Amino acid sequence: MGRVTVYSRAGLTQEIHAGGHVLVADEPVAAGGADSGPDPYALLLGALGACTSMTLHLYARRKGWPLQGVVVELDFSRVYAEDCVHCDDPRALLDRVDRRITVRGPLDDAQVARLGEIARKCPVHKTLTASINVVDDVRREGA
To answer: Residue 44, class by beta-carbon neighbours within 10 Å (0-12 exposed, 13-18 middle, 19+ buried)?
Structure first.
């Protein structure tokens, strides 16, 4: 894994440099952005979806299984931890990702079930479901 550097551009547009690749992130117009790229949550879901698909392809290849394709559909939402016992408390909300995985190929039921288990072992899934420690170092340019 390498370093990712993000540069702010006009408005809310962000330029993301990852290795030799450049991506753009932005917010929709309704949220004050220019909609020049996916929003940060869409990028996060994209990372989970890409990792899921790659993990399944690598596993199937290693096992010699006839996996021909994977489609991962993801939705992000916030849901109440309990049935709205403390609805006005923002801490009562939980972040939720719904992930639907469709696999193509002449796979049997046991292989499909095993791929479902393997999907939960993709590195990004494991990172998102674990405690993450983000260490910040904020500095002023030229200091």
So the answer is: middle
Give the mean pLDDT of the chain.
Answer: 91
91 — alpha (psi -120 to 50), left (phi > 0) or beta? alpha
On the 0-12 / 13-18 / 19+ scale of CB atoms within 10 A, 72 is buried
pTM recorded for the entire structure = 0.85
CA-to-CA dists, residue 56 to 18, 102, 120, angstroms: 23, 11, 10
Is the domain spanning 39-128 CATH 3.30.300.20? The answer is yes
The residue length of the chain stands at 143
